[in-house]
Amino acid sequence: MVDLTQVRSSNSALKTSQNDAFVAVFVGATSGIGEYTAKQLASSVQKPTIHIVGRNAEAGSRILEELKTANPQGTFNFIQSDVSLLRNVDEVCAVIKQKEQAVDLLFITTDTTEGLENNHSLRFYSRMRFIYNLLPLLRASHTPARVVTVLAGGQEGKISEDNLDLQKAWSFGAAASYAATMNSLAVEYLASENPTISFAHVFPGIVRTPLMKTTLGSVAGSIAGFLSRPFSSSPEESGERNLFISTSAAYPPAEPVDPAKVGVPLGDGVKTVAASNGKVGGGAYLLHYDGTDVTNKTLMGEYRQKEFPRKVWDHTLATFKKALGTA
């Protein structure tokens, strides 16, 4: 576990270790984990450019004002969109491509408690579409770039090759397991194909965000929040830890263009983390909220032997073509 003091020390070094052109895209950041991570970044980088993507225009406007107050030198933009629809993801990415020549951080926290179609789309396909569309800008980063998908790293399970879209068999448990596993397998594949970019799939732990009340209801959510307090994180701490995962040299790409530029230099006691394939600094990371590796080596090894990382990505591209008429 990376101590919170080490996290804060690393984050505080961002003002001197990152250049003024740092560009970040936060998808699903109008509340909770994404919002607080964006706020931490805005306070830690001298002149960041941050694009916030979300459905709630009122929340988006509020967050923009708070970001501007935290850092008047930054550039902040809100893009309103329902990104459960892949064509909307394409429209958002087109806007970002018009504004930016490179993206240094893509941070995704989209989720929903609504039905099957939106659930699997937001937890997997929408996330992958953002990555797919923004890969050219991520490759152009000089930081180098990092992609962080916050969902359920380390909670992978058994999945079937003929049910990746969950149309053959579905249950709440299967939906959660498939989303977790497919995110992890895609992260591995993408890191192997884009070795100058770091990819991380993170389990956020229990964070005291409005999602508890949204999911469980006001009364039950309040009770759950109270009972979980001893082993949960505040939104502020979650933001700090996610910023560390998003910027620290502890999670370098497999083949950095410049080995001297792989993130904020490691502080005392902080080490480079092993990737999901077991290689230290291997580019694809399955992480607990505290930044530690939580890879199920046996399970991921079995999937790797059966070429599931590639199969999941091939399925993803086929789904894009089916839904949009083109990959």
TrEMBL record:
Keywords: Oxidoreductase. InterPro entries: NAD(P)-bd_dom_sf (IPR036291), SDR_fam (IPR002347), Sec_Metab_Biosynth_Oxidored (IPR052228). Pfam families: adh_short. PANTHER family: ALCOHOL DEHYDROGENASE-LIKE C-TERMINAL DOMAIN-CONTAINING PROTEIN, YALI0E05731P. SUPFAM superfamilies: NAD(P)-binding Rossmann-fold domains. One of its GO terms (molecular function) is oxidoreductase activity. This is Short-chain dehydrogenases/reductase.
